[in-house]
Amino acid sequence: MAILPVGWARYINASAKDCADRVFDGMALSPFSGFTPLCKELCASQASEDEDFARIVEFSRALAPPPKDEARITAIHTAMADPFLIEVPELADRIGMTVRTLERMCARYFGFPPRLMLRRQRLIRSLTAFLADGAQNWSRTMDRHYHDHAHFVREFHSFMGMSPTQYAQMDHPILDAFVAERRRIWGLPAPTSADIPASTTQAG
């Protein structure tokens, strides 16, 4: 299950920092246990997809009210998508908060420090551009803010645990389908912030 930062603030009573890069049993006592009743209903449901979707919406609205920090969380999330924004102080200025407040909010709702998140967004921009370009040329599609190709390779290995060449040789059916559909609808590379959760927390 992937939860965007505003959803995390609304539904999860735990710090994203304490849950990031971990795997949880969503049916056991965990930060995600509030969704257990919904899971049980859907697993036993004989309803149509539209009826199940309506039940999900109804359940989600009743589970918790919108978070008080919704506007600030959305501002951070939106600013992260700006390809020209690469420094934490600039990000803090953009959304009108101190660096310390930004760090606290990122830990609570995004799971990672803002500097790490900006580095991650830079890699995601490169990755989505590479896939949208037909997975042919990293040099042409890597983000403009990498100092050189060696810098990109180091960052890629840090996040992905492999080299760009190794990644390119793998099959990517889900990401390929995602990028292809985005290209068909928008004619542009897939966005990197609004649709992709900042946290890598998972629940099974």
Q: How would you describe this protein?
A:
With 204 residues, this protein is mostly helical. It has a domain at 115-195. It contains twelve helices and two strands, in the order H-H-E-H-H-H-H-H-H-H-H-H-H-E. Strands 1-2 form a two-stranded parallel ribbon. It starts with a helix and ends with a strand.
Rg estimate, integer Å:
19 Å
Q: What's the number of helices?
A: 12
| Cα separation of the termini | 7 Å
Helix/strand/pairing category: mainly alpha
Along the chain, the helix and strand elements come as HHEHHHHHHHHHHE
Q: Please report the total strand number as a whole number.
A: 2
The low-confidence parts are: 189-204
Mean pLDDT level: 83
Spatial order of the strands forming the largest sheet: 1-2
Q: Roughly how much helix do the residues carry, as a percent range?
A: 55-70%
Beta strand %: under 5%
Q: What kind of sheet is the major sheet? A: 2 strands, parallel
Shape: globular
Brief characterization of the structure:
The protein is an all-alpha fold. Helices cover about 60% and strands about 0% of the residues.
Features:
mainly alpha, 2 strands, 204 residues, globular, two-stranded parallel sheet, 12 helices, disordered C terminus
Map the helices and strands.
Layout: H1 5-11, H2 16-19, E1 23-24, H3 36-44, H4 49-63, H5 70-79, H6 88-95, H7 99-110, H8 114-132, H9 138-141, H10 149-160, H11 164-168, H12 173-186, E2 202-203
Parallel strand pairs: 1-2
Helix pairs in contact: 1-5, 5-6
